[in-house]
Amino acid sequence: MTPGKSYLSSDEIRPLAERSDAMGLWLVLHCWGVIACALALFALWPNPLTFVLAVMVIGSRQLGLAILMHEAAHNALFKSRKWNDIVGEWLCGRPILAELAAYRHYHLTHHRFTQTDKDPDLKLSAKFPTSKASLKRKFTRDLTGQTGGKQLLGQILMSFRLAGDDDAIEAATSDFAQSFKAPHLWKSLPVFIGVAVVMSLIGDWWWGLAFWLLPYLTWFQFVLRVRNIAEHGAVEQSQNPLQNVRTTKAGPIARLFVAPYWVNYHLEHHMVMHVPCWQLKSMHKALLDKGIGPDMRIASGYGQALAEAGWKRA
């Protein structure tokens, strides 16, 4: 049974779960529009500050594309499966070297077995809480491009090794999907490169490297890790839907740089996974109105979520 039905009636869930083609289109256009605005900011005022801001904003919107692909994986971005598949694949997934079909299969398994031994995401969350020193090392590797570079190289080598071996690709799919990676890299790489080329044609020759590859290798990896930690790091390893996942409150700055498109309402998403992301805030309020707020694992911000995961530990 859907966990949310233990707290909300079908009549309460139904309007929250209503999909909107107009809203789905707006979210995709918004994500790419923010990327365009970040480029325009640097073009108008080229300096080190606007460069760094552009890299951070674009990296956060690469996460935004991953989130919208996640919506499509749940068939929640658009009303029809067809448009979820087309847009989720080509405008959200492949530009960030992700693959919708592989991710959907992996992610639905995560929902079915959340924080149990069968959860494929458990290996990501089981290591928390950890030490502050360990978190610093992880964040340093992310922000210096070591994580992204290692993963990209691993994808390339794996694609060569698995070329033509469909059974081996299927076996490796979960290792890729957990980080929004495409097992069939060569189907996504032209799209990724295409975005970079368009950026270089708009600006200077190096723009594609600076404003698509660099954010992908650095800020995107950092916020992806922060998101993973906030959602399932240092939570209860049980089948209690109020405690085996975390919702994190996010203000405007956090939503811009770390948590786009309501991704912070993760407990609500696990309650009813087909509720569109733009309805999760309303669902959060509906659950609080039921008086179960004190029983829900809610962090006051990403600082608290990281503290629970080990940031304040020695």
From TrEMBL:
<feature type="domain" description="Fatty acid desaturase">
    <location>
        <begin position="48"/>
        <end position="289"/>
    </location>
</feature>
<dbReference type="InterPro" id="IPR005804">
    <property type="entry name" value="FA_desaturase_dom"/>
</dbReference>
<feature type="transmembrane region" description="Helical">
    <location>
        <begin position="189"/>
        <end position="214"/>
    </location>
</feature>
<keyword id="KW-1133">Transmembrane helix</keyword>
<protein>
    <submittedName>
        <fullName>Fatty acid desaturase family protein</fullName>
    </submittedName>
</protein>
<keyword id="KW-0472">Membrane</keyword>
<dbReference type="Pfam" id="PF00487">
    <property type="entry name" value="FA_desaturase"/>
</dbReference>
<feature type="transmembrane region" description="Helical">
    <location>
        <begin position="24"/>
        <end position="45"/>
    </location>
</feature>
<keyword id="KW-0812">Transmembrane</keyword>
<dbReference type="InterPro" id="IPR012171">
    <property type="entry name" value="Fatty_acid_desaturase"/>
</dbReference>
<feature type="transmembrane region" description="Helical">
    <location>
        <begin position="51"/>
        <end position="73"/>
    </location>
</feature>
